[in-house]
Amino acid sequence: MDRKPLIAGNWKMHTNIEEARQLAAAVVKAAARVPDREVMIAPPYTALAAVESVIAGTGVMLGAQNVHWEGKGAFTGEISGIMLRDIGCGMAIVGHSERRHVFGESGRMINRRVKGALQSGLIPVFCIGETLEQREAGQTMQVLENQVRAGLDSVALTDGGQLVVAYEPVWAIGTGKTATEAQAQEAHSFIRGLLADLYEKNIAAQIRILYGGSVKPDNIDILMQQNDIDGALVGGAALNAESFERIICFQ
Ligand code: PEP
């Protein structure tokens, strides 16, 4: 089953509007050199409009860093999928480890966000991953299973392209410690099995599973050679044009 690789950049709470424009222009240039893969960038909300004007018509996709499940209402500080579609987003990151661990988002809340994204026509980039303590206690697969089952509870899909999963071990995010390619492949293959349990075979086989956690120019190639790694969700290295260009152009 062919899954088009996806390289996604999560800019978190970084970049002013001018920096965002410049970084987006560099991403557009790099992405044009490798049409066999998809590229998504998720700037802060304040730069979505500026980035959209740079990437419009280029094939680079716009992503949001979160999404609320309601279309509108009294939800101070939140942004709806309808609003994100309106500004040009095609994807939204959901359940990022910073949302789970810094902001206390629960599996149930993340499940609502996944459904909200789908209802508004956004592709959720649904993030899961274990902490260091959980890995050291031998609980990795159980944690991943619990997160997948909670986050995707009653999430119906008619096409595997409607969902992206990102495996991001919490201990590897922003720490400079990457999972080895074997550790990542083991987790991805386990997640692929869980998806096959939840969805029809052909749908599960189409769902892309990204690896995230200190992805850099010097580890992207080996990660992308693993059977079940379909792309990368990149934080720190996505803020540097040269690094992200090299990651987009993985071999
Ligand atoms: C992330 O925030 O999703 C991430 C993977 O960050 P970093 O690449 O900096 O580890």
Summary keywords:
251 residues, TIM Barrel, eight-stranded parallel β-barrel, 8 strands, binds phosphoenolpyruvate
What is shown here, in short?
The chain has 11 helices and 8 strands.
Could you give me the name of the CATH homologous superfamily? Aldolase class I
* CATH-level-2 architecture: Alpha-Beta Barrel
Bound molecules: phosphoenolpyruvate
Based on secondary structure, the structural category is alpha/beta
What is the CATH top level name?
Alpha Beta
Helix content: 40-55%
Oligomer: single chain
**Biggest pleated-sheet summary:** 8 strands, parallel, barrel
Low-confidence stretches: none
Structure, described:
The protein has 251 residues and is of the alpha/beta class. The chain has one domain: TIM Barrel (Alpha-Beta Barrel), CATH 3.20.20.70. The protein is built from eleven helices and eight strands. An eight-stranded parallel beta barrel has the order 1-2-3-4-5-6-7-8, surrounded by seven helices. β3 (61-64), α3 (81-87) and β4 form a beta-alpha-beta unit. α1 runs parallel beside α2, α1 (17-32) runs parallel beside α11 (241-248) and α7 (140-151) packs parallel to α8. The longest helix has 18 residues, at 181-198. It is globular. It starts with 5 loop residues before the first strand and ends with a helix. 45% of the residues are buried. The model has no long low-confidence stretch (mean pLDDT 97). Bound molecules: phosphoenolpyruvate.
Topology of this protein?
Elements: E1 6-10, H1 17-32, E2 38-42, H2 48-55, E3 61-64, H3 81-87, E4 89-94, H4 97-101, H5 107-119, E5 123-128, H6 132-136, H7 140-151, E6 164-167, H8 181-198, H9 201-206, E7 208-212, H10 220-224, E8 231-234, H11 241-248
Parallel strand pairs: 1-2, 1-8, 2-3, 3-4, 4-5, 5-6, 6-7, 7-8
The chain binds phosphoenolpyruvate.
Residues 10, 168, 173-174, 212-215, 233-237 line the site of phosphoenolpyruvate (PEP).
